[in-house]
Design brief:
The protein has 162 residues and is an all-alpha fold. It is 81% helix and 0% strand. The protein is built from 7 helices and no strands. It has helices at residues 8-36, 41-47, 49-77, 81-98, 101-118, 124-131, 140-161.
């Protein structure tokens, strides 16, 4: 029997890689899912506006996956863990707004392991905003994704009310 010892660092890398792969593959998984059900995707998109919005959402996720890949590389290079945690938190909230709880929970688990591995406390975030210069540039992409999430939620609400 092979004994595998998972350290927190390996778990963090595994979750990062899992999120990146699933986000890149999400449009293909949606297409495969509709093919598996025997549904013609073009008819489904033209007839059901909800699936049209889900199709749009699925093609946004690879770009979010690319952004998370950049965050992973920035974590390895810059070690600005608190900034990366806040950016991931904004992304998780964006996925909650979009109605994709699975992705959001996965990102929250990653945030938890980052807290655990780097031994960060919630109180530490107060000092980040006080001692470091708050750069809007660092949060431009997560806030853009958050605004896209709000737009997708509004579209889903409009579609469900008709």
């Amino acid at each position: 029997m092979i004994k595998i010892k998972m350290t927190s660092k390996k778990i963090i890398e595994f979750i990062f890689n899992l999120i990146i792969v699933v986000f890149f593959a999400y449009p293909f998984l949606l297409i495969l899912y509709t093919q598996f059900l025997g549904i013609d995707l073009q008819k489904l998109i033209s007839m059901d506006p909800y699936w049209n919005i889900m199709f749009i959402q699925s093609f946004i996720t690879p770009f979010i996956g690319f952004y998370i890949l950049q965050l992973k590389e920035r974590l390895a290079n810059d070690r600005k863990v608190e900034t990366i945690i806040l950016q991931l938190l904004v992304l998780a909230i964006g996925f909650l707004i979009m109605g994709n709880a699975t992705f959001s929970i996965t990102i929250f688990i990653l945030i938890f392991y980052l807290f655990y591995y780097w031994k960060i406390k919630i109180k530490d975030f107060q000092y980040i905003f006080k001692k470091e210069n708050f750069s809007f540039k660092d949060y431009l992409v997560p806030l853009t994704i958050l605004s896209i999430a709000v737009i997708i939620r509004i579209m889903l609400n409009l579609v469900s009310n008709t």
